[in-house]
Amino acid sequence: MTFVVFILMLVIRQVIFVNTEDCRTKENLNHEFAVNCDFLKLTLIPSMVRFGLNPIKFISISGDANNLNNIPTIRKTDFQAVSRVTSLVISWSQVKTVEDGAFEKMADLKTLSLTDNELESLNATTFAGIPLLKELDLSGNRICKFDETIFNNIQSISVLNLGDMNLLFIREDFFNSLHSLRVLKLYTNHIKTVSENLILNLPALENLDLSANQLQTIPVEWKPKFQTMKRVHLVENPLHCNCLLAWLQEQPYQTTLDSGSLVCNGPQKLRYSSFLNVPDRDFVCIPPKVLHCEQSTYSVGVNQQLSIVCEYGGDPVPEIKWTRPDGQVYDGRNTSEGGYHVAENGTLLIYRVLMSDNGLWKVTAYNQTTSDNMLINVIVRKAERTEPQTIPPIFKPEDCNFIHNEAAISSTVPVIKISKILEKGSPKADVATAGIDMGNIYWVLLAAIASAAGAMVGLLCLLIMFCKRNKKPNRSNQIRAFEHDI
Ligand SMILES: *[C@@H]1O[C@H](CO)[C@@H](O)[C@H](O)[C@H]1NC(C)=O
Ligand SMILES: *[C@@H]1O[C@H](CO)[C@@H](O)[C@H](O)[C@H]1NC(C)=O
Ligand SMILES: *[C@@H]1O[C@H](CO)[C@@H](O)[C@H](O)[C@H]1NC(C)=O
Ligand SMILES: *[C@@H]1O[C@H](CO)[C@@H](O)[C@H](O)[C@H]1NC(C)=O
């Protein structure tokens, strides 16, 4: 019997401990043990029982970019026997999943680092049973999904690293339960905006790292918070140096902030300027303005599509809203409602124009304090008049002027000819002595041609007036043809 057990143990040992041979162990002065299994290219979490050491306080199972472990799952059974561990590191190990409650037997766990893995999802149950956890490092897990429950079981953490996790946006109340949070690292993500409330409810916060994100501005509401904090990192953000960011340049923040390394990304004239070198007066805002719209009047058949394009000015870039003649409002860039879309660039798109769209539309560029607007007339034509869409452009007064000028030019041609004849055929003396009659003939000829040309111009303009009044497509075509003949 004992022999069988012995054989069995040998087999188990062979199977389970096969790749744990090179873990090193170390004892400290307090007779606590550390197990170090770094750089072993492991495929399993080594069994800790095997070391027979007590108590094991520190475990490290790690590699680096060139020495990855391949441990797809941290199992619930992996750490059953090591209840005294206070620090656990499993990094560079291609971990994809952590079984629910995987750490729950390590009730003393204070530090947990799972950096540079491929964690796919985390939730409250991942961290069940480790309520004393103080430091959590999840950085470098770039495809990890988690929700607002993630901290439910670890509310006393004081150091949290969510750097390099491809985060786009963080809910304003995401950290609210973390009353002991002292250090918050969110570097190297893609965060574009931060809510004013994101950090205001974190009484213990001392150190915030938001470097290498996409932030253009920092809420002025953070001002009092920054006064109590020790360190704030904002480098490598595309900071927009306008009036909203001027507060950040004030003296008290320069020691807290890495302001010596901050660079303005905008507005254009301040681009690449060192933050500290920009004078106060250059941190300016420009009020919202509707600069101009492509047309002031649109004429469109019912059920047709209409887009109204305007240009807007202002720094910061203003919000845009459109008000329908009946008062209905379409508010905000890149928003849709019914058949109406306000594009990111502020353009209004109406997919199918209704009779109720007829009238004066108002476009407003605004921020919280000021606004500017412009009215645009939309004329909605009834269904039977959808054809006119294809009418060639109607003559404008300038067109008439143009034709008139051309006629005038062509009428000068004969005049030039006549003067040439005069010059060539008869020197002044000849005309004076022998050719008074000749001279008269030339003048009569000149007058006749000039009046003919004048008559033609007159006729032409009459015809144009006629065509303008009738606005018939065929007519205007004729006039175009006539114009060519001239
Ligand atoms: C947490 O995630 C695991 C899978 O990773 C899932 O099985 C479990 O139901 C989730 N728990 C909660 C509370 O969402
Ligand atoms: C709105 O624009 C005005 C004028 O540029 C500016 O002074 C003000 O700070 C802006 N308000 C906000 C909240 O952006
Ligand atoms: C516009 O909004 C849609 C969803 O509402 C979103 O997918 C898209 O990325 C937004 N586009 C821009 C330019 O913000
Ligand atoms: C604005 O966006 C719309 C829809 O995305 C596009 O059709 C239009 O050409 C854009 N206009 C300008 C002026 O960029």
UniProtKB/TrEMBL annotation:
PROSITE patterns, A to Z: IG_LIKE, LRR
Protein name in UniProt: Ig-like domain-containing protein
Keywords from the named record: Disulfide bond, Leucine-rich repeat, Membrane, Repeat, Signal, Transmembrane, Transmembrane helix
Organism of origin: Dreissena polymorpha
Domain of life of the native organism: Eukaryota
Ig-like domain sequence ranges: 288-377
Lineage of the organism: Eukaryota, Metazoa, Spiralia, Lophotrochozoa, Mollusca
Segments traversing the membrane: 441-466
Signal peptide per UniProt: 1-17
